[in-house]
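User: Mind token order:
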Amino acid sequence: MHIDRYERLFIYAAVALLVVFMGALAVSSFAFGIRVPTAYEKVDPRTVATPPSPWGLPAEERLRELSPGNYEVYLLGQMWQFSPNTITVPAGSRVTFYVTSKDVQHGFKIAGTNINIMALPGEVGVLTATFDTPGTYNFYCHEYCGALHHTMYGQIVVEE
């Protein structure tokens, strides 16, 4: 079977690009630790906001210091707010976010960072970030969730 010279070159180039892309995917997932967020655990969205669930605690108690400089936050998305909507940590803190939704699909994005995850009813998403630079980091819902979607935002305050 005869394959035209230019067609053969195109096939070689396409195969070479596939190898390059697969190599980039392998390097990013193993060397840099980049991974796709998946469901950490399942929860019942009807009872997630009631004790003894950590999302059922008062908002000020959902930020926990596990050890010096190591925190966890249980963040609940519901129409049209995040709870807690203000999180204060010292500079250099490593914060693990446990994000879920009580009602509909929401998004959780921290502006100026690569922290971005879906908040789905019944599923808990987990992301960890280190905040080295003092300042205010805004977070918001990036999935349209209803008429007052634009009011769904909050702040992470990183203090000296």
Summary: The two ends are 71 Å apart (CA to CA). The first strand starts at residue 39 and ends at 42.
